[in-house]
Amino acid sequence: MERFAQLIDALDGCNGSKRKVELLSTYLAEVPANDGCWALNLLLGERRKRLITGRRLREILQQSTSLPDWLFEDCHSHVGDSAETVALLWPQLRDKLPSSPSIQDSGISPLLARVPESPPLHWWMESLLPSLAHCDSELQTQAMTALWWAVPEERHFLLNKLLTGGFRIGVARGLVVKGVAAAFALEETTVLERLMGDIEPTASWFEQLSAPLDQKRTNRGAVPYPFFLASPLQPDGLCDTDPHTWWIESKWDGIRGQLIRREEGVFLWSRGEELINTSFPELVAMAERLPANTVLDGEVICWQKEQSRPLPFANLQRRLGRKRVSLKLKEECPVQFVAYDLLEDGGTDLRDQPLTIRLNKLSEYYRSIDGPEAWRLRRSEGEVLKNWEVLDELRLKAGNGGAEGLMLKELQSPYLAGRKRGFWWKHKLEPMTLDGVLIYAQAGSGRRANLFTDYTFALWDRRSDDPADHQLVTFAKAYSGLNDEEILTLDRWIRRHTRERFGPTRVVDPELVFEIGFEGIQQSKRHKCGLAVRFPRILRWRQDRSAESADSLHNAEQLLLQRQPNAA
Amino acid sequence: MSLLINTAEGLYCPAAQAWIDPHRPVTRALITHAHADHAKPGCDEYWATTSSAGILRQRLGQSINLRTLNYKQQQQIGNAVVSFHSAGHVLGSAQIRLEVNGEVWVVTGDYKRCPDPSCEPFDPVPCDVLITEATFALPIYRWSDGATLAHSIKEWWQGDRSRPSLLFCYAFGKAQRVMAELAAIGVDDEVLLHGAVETVTRHYRDLSVPMVPSRPVSELPRKESLAGRLVLAPPSAHRSSWMRRFPAPQTAFASGWMAVRGARRRKGYERGFVLSDHADWQGLIRTVKESGAQRVYVTHGQNDVLARYLNEVEGIQAAPLAALG
Hints:
The complex is a heterodimer of chains A (568) and B (325). Chain A has 21 helices and 22 strands. Chain A is an alpha+beta fold. The N and C termini of chain A lie far apart (60 Å). Helices cover 23% and strands 25% of the residues of chain B.
């Protein structure tokens, strides 16, 4: 545990990526497998079952101190993290106690007695912390307090984090992958592949991850290939290339999926590396008609049979994360799989083959598949680019067809892993924009703790004839788009112009106007203004505009009509 | 009439016809300490402690009309008896005690309760009404003693002698405290100073404050390697062109704000040392209780938090300073 804690401290205290990778690889190369699996599980931010909630830790702390609730809340909004807040407040509790509570429990006492020996990470994760989580309330309070006594204060933050989950310390996944690759002399793609499935905190999982590359595999089982990701189009330079080397297709606003057909079954993976079979049983049924050892890359999207344009993203959202899908939902939100690449054909890995060959082979699948669900495998229509001048026109056309833009793919390109620039470009429609008025602000968390960085914007409701009744209605929240300097300026402005506070939220004078960009707009019953937007972000601070001149709900509804002619 | 009142220029004492740490030029200013947010230029007459005179003149001009008092020395100004009492914040820092017709008010200015080898310790002063600062008035702020911090600074600096160690800290007070704390744990290596730190340090040397030896960076030959050297610089120098002199340094910031991880990461320092010249939560409450004041006004930082806590939990009548008419 101490070694892991030192790694975390060192990672936390360095800003350079190169140094972080060095720290990771040094640690991973020497760590025993039964600790290494936990370290990676934590560093990769795997979703774990929360052992104890932050709220419960706070309760334990508060039981013996005189801290009122509101004061704890103030501390929390200042720190931005409950595990850290509890760690910082521990001395307040320690002062009230004469000594560590003595615990007489045959389960937990022997475990607590081992803490001073500084046992290894896996012992904490597998023995002590789970036992602590399962204690009944009274015993848990005592045991947690005793544990805080036994662990040095500078380790409380880590300890509380291990208990409450949500362990993030600012090491990007990519750096961890590089660290693993460097530690065991593996290719990054190999590491990515091996990390695709579930990360099990077991020694054998870690041994498989770190094992030397075995020669010639055929069947990967359920394990998906790493996704090849596109980058936003940068037209400079690209326009000098021969247009005929580029394949153009619509970019659909669904979720990325990899559909794997093996003899042992069908596996549908999302880009977040989650198996989503249960949310889309129709696609699984469709894929059962594919020949064994086929792997398709494509988009999962809600799209009615024999319709020319897909349903809005909100429909897909209703289906995400479902363990079971009702008949009604299947009817209201039918799904299709828009296949645009073929990664494995009859057991042959095609990823090194040029795109033209993969597309040719893929087109045979559309023809060969049959059965009542066959319509759910949708061909991704595309064409070879004729010249660069038509690109904008094509993009507009795609947009009118309900897509969110275009994809450009180099016809000779292989299928790579991760975001590698050069072969795949996404060319989205220009975002829609509205000018909104800043009305609420809330402090961020982590690096943005105690800094007002979460903003809520409003539009005017001018439906009343009397201008005195015109009011601002909440429309979107945005967190990104301002630079550090603007954030600081705005933070100071917010502190000076706070009208009211509701917990961590501040109501500010409705004076500042920001241009908000977003990708999609749709009707919503959940939102106060009746509209929901996709990916809202701040495009710029409109210091040239007054609040009165900001956009109205009517302007937003016009945008809705433009994008979805049938929404009215 | 109240002994002190809020005016546009700052806290005003009608009996003494004087303002305390005024924000704008006034006829008579009583200065708690020489930090820029407390000592503004342009006043006709200044009153301050003897040990703050050097820095005050350097910052406000050699020709200011400055009257100095030793700690605890009582002075009749108008109808008020005025005295300065050590605040333990920086060299020459003071609380100001005002007595009019037997009623006593104390304005703490900035202060801390932990011992600091670079300045006089805090001197508790009984009073009827206390006006206290509240910069760090949240229970998450709790300071370790200076020696512990000095040891961790030493360990950090000497743990990597392959490159320069840049420690950022406020040029007046914090930097000299770091040097004094290091000397107190037996360090005697020479420390290098940014120009802004050097100018203030001279006044500490004049008053024989025991600190590690130091030299301005600018006095070193341009080519001399700075690997393994500890350099003290003000936060404004972080990421400035001045830093080009130091190839691949390790950086740290010494401040009470470093207690919170998010604050450190946002500022982009690799390491944070929680070293503050303000009172922590414990220190604030202890000071309020020791003063025996029946009424407390709170200013700076988390004033509403401290006032509410004093009222609700400690049963002491308290309010943010704005509530004082």
